[in-house]
Write a structure and sequence with these properties.
Enzyme class: transferase
CATH architecture of the largest domain: Alpha-Beta Barrel
Strand content: 5-15%
Subunit structure: Homodecamer; pentamer of dimers.
Order of helices and strands: HEHEHHEHEHEHHEHEEHH
CATH class of the largest domain: Alpha Beta
Shape: globular
Largest sheet: 8 strands, parallel, barrel
EC number: 2.1.2.11
Protein name: 3-methyl-2-oxobutanoate hydroxymethyltransferase
Distance between the termini: 49 Å
Helix content: 40-55%
Number of domains: 2
Radius of gyration: 20 Å
Number of helices: 11
Family: Belongs to the PanB family.
Amino acid sequence: MSVNKEVKRITTHILQEMKHRGEKISMLTAYDYSMATVLDDAGLDVLLVGDSASNVMAGHETTLPITLDQMIYHAQGVVRGATRAFVVVDLPFGSYQGNSKEALSSAIRIMKESGAHGVKLEGGTEIVDSIERIITAGIPVMGHLGLTPQSIYKFGTYTVRAKDEAEAEKLKVDAKALQDAGCFAVVLEKIPAALAKEVAESLHIPVIGIGAGQYCDGQVLVVNDMIGLTKGFKPRFLRQYLNLYEEILGAAKSYIRDVKANDFPNEKEQY
């Protein structure tokens, strides 16, 4: 039984304790107040306001178009709905790469304007300067390695990363660099399970996996995928717990039928 059901707010310290005692960390994305409220009530440890909102909320092909202002808007709703979970917000593409001063400015805006508890950045050694500058300002940073969607045009594919020895070695170096820079946790996306296990065992900070196997310290999924609200997206790593697309489709069809038949509203549903 998790003792964390009794805490008022999950913190980076509690997440560190969870790793040390072997308790898995549960994490899902959230993009609005209503969903955050449900997930927080369920007892999620971490809510990620992901730049995946660019895909699932706005319909873009990639995560690249979403702006800092839009991320802050989504984060504000999630923070209002989460009374217990630790809320992390993705720094969007173009708000931190290659400029540590801009990275700090972006992170400060997210923290001040949304009330979030930390930020997440994609990349390894090449963004260490930005990470260190953000952490110096007192802002917790979560790293992200493996498949990094903001670099999709560099990779050219969403296939599994770090399958060859050279890329695997770089990932291990990057993971250690992120820990040394002060990250409180690292996400590993779509890499071989054996590599993720090696990284998780080598780091003293929590390692959260998505498509990275069962040996990570926790797991994260895009909530719209997990509840089956995303049409047609079913990668191997996804366990779909509901099929809300079909449920909502059926409900909408029933509503249309009742309206057309003048069955809604009935006498009990009017004033």
